[in-house]
Write a structure and sequence with these properties.
The complex is a heterodimer of chains A (76) and B (356). By secondary structure, chain A is an all-alpha fold. Chain A has one domain: ACP-like (Non-ribosomal Peptide Synthetase Peptidyl Carrier Protein, Chain A), CATH 1.10.1200.10. Chain A is built from 3 helices and no strands. In chain A, α1 crosses α2. The termini of chain A are close together. Chain B is an alpha/beta fold and 356 residues long. Chain B has a single domain, classed as 3-Layer(aba) Sandwich (Peroxisomal Thiolase, Chain A, domain 1). Chain B has a 6-stranded mixed β-sheet with strand order 6-5-7-8-2-17, with helices on both faces. In chain B, a hairpin with a 3-residue loop joins β15 and β16. In chain B, α3 packs parallel to α4 and α6 crosses α7. Chain B starts with a strand and ends with a strand. Classes of the chains: A mainly alpha (76), B alpha/beta (356). The interface between A and B is medium-sized, with 21 and 24 residues.
Chain lengths: 76, 356
């Protein structure tokens, strides 16, 4: 989980992700951030995220992102 | 809709690029996002450089430059032309049409059929379909198929979602009857209920352009855009491509009686690198046969993307040999289609640059 928070902080250092209950609804992540984050997750966890899983609900929280990594075969 | 065409071939292809190159690194400062964040997209999306036509340049200008070139070089004679088909989103005027401008400026004969097709990303497939149907009635005369857009004129330079990926260009393909040609399989699908995923809201009859439609709005996501500008719902289009295109490709393979191994190259519309990678993964298509490098070299030129991708990546090979190609495009409409056709042993295949 800390790795994901570190990635989010690297991607958008201007936001405190721990204070948000929904990163997408709160405007912390837009569609292009989701693309960048997907690329970072694929590199970090050596996974391939299915294109159909690149939807806002899989990026709304650290738990959701961790779930996506696991679903994509990553160890987290 | 599924169609099969017999005895039709592309025999020459020309790409026409404006010489002005916009560099993503230089444009980063135009966007209200932290530069580091924007630059991260360079590798993922393939944002690097794109071709930008001058503000006064239209599609007919680019096309005429190409027409003069192929006529002067003897690729085709005026009297061999039976039809001019233009697929574009960027008309010079509502009336007259670009094909009529080409006809007049090139001094073509009065029995030449001229036709504009207002189409975006699928413009090459729709243009080929129309060309093949016209050729049924043309004997030895040929169709000049022109694809081109200057969409950089319609995209806000402060819109980081759209401007970096747009490129201006035109292509000319000579299409003709060829009794030896392999059968061509084509299928096309449309979902008009999702038509607003790609839209230029103002400028036509529904909402004519005026001072109000030209006002730039802060969209709250860091991008600035007016109603006169093109807007793409990136998430919606991405989801559409991931959902609709892979099953269509699979269906097309079955209908055409072909497998992935039968295909020498996948010439796909080029929205951006990320979308193409995810599409290739989802559809189990080999990366080494599916070029994804048009956006980083020239930008996404809408309907001209497939022929430009062919010229950029396979110019020399297409002059020497025939390749079984799987063409696919997806975009405004929403429209998505696939075509299997052999392309190659072209008479001519070139890319030229113009000051326009």
């Amino acid at each position: 989980m800390n790795d994901i928070l570190a990635m989010l902080a690297e991607l958008k250092p201007e936001f405190n992700f721990e204070e948000s209950s929904d990163f997408v609804m709160d405007g912390l992540l837009d569609s292009f951030d989701i693309i960048s984050l997907t690329s970072m997750l694929e590199e970090k966890y050596n996974i391939t995220v299915d294109g159909l899983d690149i939807v806002p609900e899989n990026f709304c929280s650290v738990e959701a992102i961790a779930g996506l990594v696991k679903k994509s075969g990553g160890n987290i | 809709m599924q169609m099969r065409f017999k005895g039709k071939a592309i025999t020459s292809m020309l790409g026409i690029l404006p010489e002005t190159v916009g560099l993503f690194d230089d444009e980063v400062g135009n966007y209200s996002f932290p530069p580091k964040q924007t630059l991260r997209l360079k590798k993922v999306m393939g944002f690097n450089q794109h071709r930008l036509a001058k503000d006064s340049t239209t599609v007919s200008d680019l096309a005429l430059e190409g027409m003069k070139y192929i006529l002067a070089k003897g690729w085709i004679k005026k009297e061999e032309i039976g039809a001019v088909v233009v697929a574009t989103l960027c008309p010079d005027y509502f009336v007259p049409h670009i094909s009529n401008i080409i006809h007049g400026e090139c001094g073509l004969s009065e029995d030449v059929i001229c036709m504009d097709i207002p189409q975006g990303c699928c413009g090459f497939l729709l243009g080929l379909m129309q060309s093949f149907m016209l050729l049924e009635h043309m004997n030895s005369r040929k169709v000049v198929l022109i694809n081109g857009d200057v969409l950089s004129h319609k995209v806000s330079k402060r819109d980081r979602n759209d401007f970096p990926l747009i490129g201006d260009a035109a292509t000319i393909s000579i299409v003709e009857n060829d009794a030896e040609a392999e059968e061509i399989y084509f299928e096309l699908n449309t979902d008009g209920s999702r038509r607003e995923a790609l839209i230029i809201p103002a400028g036509a009859f529904r909402t004519p352009s005026n001072a109000e439609t030209a006002v730039m709005h802060d969209l709250g996501d860091g991008n600035f855009r007016s109603l006169d500008n093109m807007h793409m719902d990136g998430s919606g289009v991405f989801n559409f491509v991931q959902t609709e295109v892979p099953p269509m490709i699979e269906h097309a393979f079955k209908e055409a009686g072909k497998t992935v191994d039968d295909i020498d190259c996948f010439l796909f519309h080029q929205p951006n690198r990320f979308m193409l990678q995810k599409l290739a993964e989802k559809a189990n298509l080999p990366f080494d046969k599916l070029p994804m490098n048009l956006v980083e070299n020239y930008g996404n030129p809408s309907g001209a993307s497939i022929p430009l991708t062919a010229i950029l990546n396979y110019k020399d090979e297409l002059l020497k040999e025939k390749k079984m190609c799987c063409l696919s495009a997806f975009g405004s409409g929403l429209t998505w289609g696939a075509m299997f056709m052999e392309i190659g042993k072209l008479g001519h295949c070139e890319m030229i640059e113009t000051e326009l």
